[in-house]
Write a structure and sequence with these properties.
Helix content: 25-40%
Distance between the termini: 41 Å
Strand order of the largest sheet: 1-2-10-7-8-9-12-11
Number of helices: 9
Order of helices and strands: HEEHEHEHEHEHEHEEHHEEE
Structural class: alpha/beta
Strand content: 15-25%
Largest sheet: 8 strands, mixed
Length: about 350
């Protein structure tokens, strides 16, 4: 196949067999599927017009995906970037035609996300014709993952399947499982969270090294469907790093930190449920984690010696790794602070 644009080629994931009960669905950059489908849908519906400016905040992966989608469909792009966006990603964004501004350095993820959303609102106040993509709240971002789910169904027909991945904005794992369960309600979903995220109630636990912003949140995300999740794992940075290093050492897969966290959680789940195939969502490659993760590989723990504390409620969780049977329950608490 000759693709009409590089984004159409980059979005397609590879399926990699890790063990008998474990398969990795590896993306070059997972949110390209989401951004392409969202922009195409908005154009077809007339919500936006060619040449209009699309704006959103991002910690990295979505920024790149939206810039590619805007390049693909002739849109303008403005990114309010997290301090975690590295120089390589920023350079690509700017060359692709996106205008980029990064918020000032902050002490924690919560302040970083609040600053970004506040800045987006300030910009929109002066540019009424710009469209806010709202990756955290607009369910248009589910659409692209439905196509991925159809590929998974075709690859694993009549298979007892468990999807394991970072929760993040909720659109990726939620979109996959929403579509998969349309034909097979028995598909299970295991969500992975960092400590400090409000999404599943770990906001009172502080991990000073947590840099996996893409799988957690300090604000409430409307795109997270809590009732989709059967099980939730909370991991600290060291455990996520250990899974990431093990994935490269044992399977030669160079992937991001959220993928390593998912790999560690999925390995544990596969031991508990050997009758099911566990599909680990690999959101991106490891390039932006070279200094912060891979250069510290000697600090990694041996995954075989690690296991989570089993808890019955978010209030019982303990660091560095906790696991809870979520049982497709609703949002854990109410009245959490919203930033958008």
């Amino acid at each position: 196949m000759i693709h009409p644009h590089i984004a159409d080629a980059l979005k397609v994931p590879d399926l990699v067999r890790l063990t008998d009960g474990l398969v990795l669905i590896r993306f070059e950059s997972m949110k390209i599927y989401s951004a392409l489908a969202a922009v195409r849908h908005l154009l077809e519906r007339g919500t936006v017009r060619p040449g209009q400016t699309l704006i959103d905040s991002s910690s990295g992966i979505y920024a790149y995906a939206l810039a590619l989608a805007c390049h693909r469909y002739g849109m303008r792009c403005h990114i309010v970037a997290s301090t975690t966006v590295d120089a390589t990603t920023r350079a690509q964004l700017e060359i692709l035609g996106a205008s980029v501004e990064q918020v000032r350095p902050s002490k924690n993820l919560k302040l970083d996300q609040e600053l970004r959303v506040r800045r987006v609102k300030e910009i929109l106040a002066g540019h009424a014709d710009w469209h806010w993509m709202r990756q955290y709240h607009d369910d248009v971002h589910y659409l692209g993952y439905h196509e991925v789910a159809d590929r998974i169904t075709a690859a694993f027909p009549r298979t007892a399947l468990t999807v394991v991945g970072g929760v993040g904005s909720g659109a990726s794992t939620g979109g996959l499982v929403e579509r998969l369960r349309a034909t097979d309600p028995s598909v299970r979903l295991v969500g992975v969270q960092p400590f400090g995220s409000v999404t599943f109630g770990s906001q009172d636990h502080h991990d000073p090294e947590a840099i996996i912003a893409g799988i957690g949140s300090s604000i409430v995300f409307d795109n997270v469907r809590h009732h989709f999740y059967d099980t939730v794992h909370w991991l600290d940075f060291t455990h996520a790093m250990s899974g990431t290093i093990a994935l490269l050492r044992d399977h030669a897969v160079f992937a991001g930190l959220s993928t390593g966290a998912g790999y560690l959680a999925a390995t544990y789940e596969a031991r508990r449920h050997p009758d099911r195939l566990h599909l680990v969502v690999g959101a991106d490659t490891g390039h932006r984690y070279v200094e912060r993760v891979f250069a510290r590989h000697t600090e990694a723990l041996e995954p075989a010696a690690l296991k989570p504390a089993e808890v019955r409620a978010p209030e019982e969780m303990v660091m560095p790794w906790s696991r809870m049977a979520w049982r497709r329950s609703a949002c854990p608490t109410s009245g959490k602070e919203r930033a958008a």
